[in-house]
Amino acid sequence: MLHLIAGNTGSGKTTYSNELKKKTKGVIFSIDTWNSTLFLPDKIETDGLEWFLERIERAEEIILNVVAQLEESNTDAILDLGLSKFEHREKFRTFAASHGYENTLHFLDISKETRWQRVQQRNTEKGATFEFEVTKENFNFMETWFEKPTENELKGSVIITE
Q1: Residue 72, H or E segment
Q2: Predicted model pTM
Q3: Which of 43, 89, 109, 113 lies at a C-alpha separation of 20 to 30 Å from 101?
Q4: Other beta carbons less than 10 A from residue 100's beta carbon
């Protein structure tokens, strides 16, 4: 089973993924961890969104390879990859369908105000789910970047609200 975790910045995707891991004994793939470990140490000031997207695409190739191995072992994969765009979510649904894997979308539909409070708290406390600081500018960018799942996408999904 592939669990597709979607929600805007600060919605609690990583926290939710960790709880889901306990319930399913699955394996989490968190793009924030991949970014902070593999990419951010090499990033220079002039590297922008395209720089990140290219690296995320390469990381996802490896993730999909491991997901296929997990499926062979009957182990759930929890994809905490942001999944901010319809096209990105569709990539993983198509992958699952083409391999005969079950998948479920988990959408964390949390208000902007609550999410910003969480981000500020995470930036300050640097607790268990902290990977890098999210600035107000980055948070605001994600407000325009994120595409809320469509009504059709939400059929049969798990929806988490405040």
Answers
A1: helix 49-72
A2: 0.88
A3: 109
A4: 7
**Angstrom distance (rounded) from CA 139 to CA 128:** 20
Burial pattern 6-39, b for ≥16 Cβ within 10 A else e, equals bbbbbbbbbbbbbebbeeeebbbbbbbebbeeeb
Asked if residues 2 and 112 have their Cβ atoms less than 8 Å apart, the reply is: no
Answer whether 146's CB lies under 8 Å from 84's CB. yes
Q: Which residue type is seen at 112?
A: K
Taking residue 106's Cβ as centre, other Cβ atoms within 10 Å add up to 21
CA-CA distance, 148 to 99, in Å (whole number)? 26
In CATH, what number does 2-161 get? 3.40.50.300
Q: Please name the residue that has the structure tokens 């988490």.
A: 160
CB burial of residue 80 (10 Å; 0-12, 13-18, 19+) = buried
DSSP string, 85-123: SHHHHHHHHHHHHHHT--EEEEEEE--HHHHHHHHHHHH
- Where are the domains positioned within the chain? 2-161
